[in-house]
């Protein structure tokens, strides 16, 4: 039921902080409980709820009816929740794949020394941090966080071709660093073997 007056909705569309607070108070718990039903993580649910209201306020001039505000809040919260669930599933998939890969490595003569795994990861992450800023960001987003070339391009507001060029250049730089260390090179080849578009 609409508990917000037409005058308050008009004030909100004009950017009134007081009107925003009234809308926030009216919807906050409903949005939070809605998100909690989708996500079993209270902190993430609180974060998504807050982000949803931030997005509403940024677009305040687009809304002047109760129904439009309500629809925007629930759709935005739902989409953010689904995005988080997809991200978490992708991260779990990467972890499973990485653990499987590590099990295979342990049977490989190159990885016979158990101390090499820590050495491998430490060396690669150190070298990644030495990359130029944009190359480093793209490398991490693509190879570590699992985003696609198009997702990165949209996020960074650059062309997909630029993303492809930067990640290829970064990988070449890292490969040059590990040419004399076969174990490290294998790790990089594992990274490069994941194709995402």
UniProtKB/TrEMBL annotation:
Residues 24-90 form the RNA polymerase sigma-70 region domain. Signal peptide: none annotated. One of its GO terms (molecular function) is DNA binding. One of its GO terms (biological process) is DNA-templated transcription initiation. Keywords: Sigma factor, Transcription, Transcription regulation. The keyword Aminoacyl-tRNA synthetase does not apply. Residues 124-172 form the RNA polymerase sigma factor 70 region 4 type domain. It holds the Pfam family Sigma70_r2. Belongs to the sigma-70 factor family. ECF subfamily. PANTHER family: RNA POLYMERASE ECF-TYPE SIGMA FACTO, RNA POLYMERASE SIGMA-70 FACTOR ECF SUBFAMILY. This is RNA polymerase subunit sigma-70.
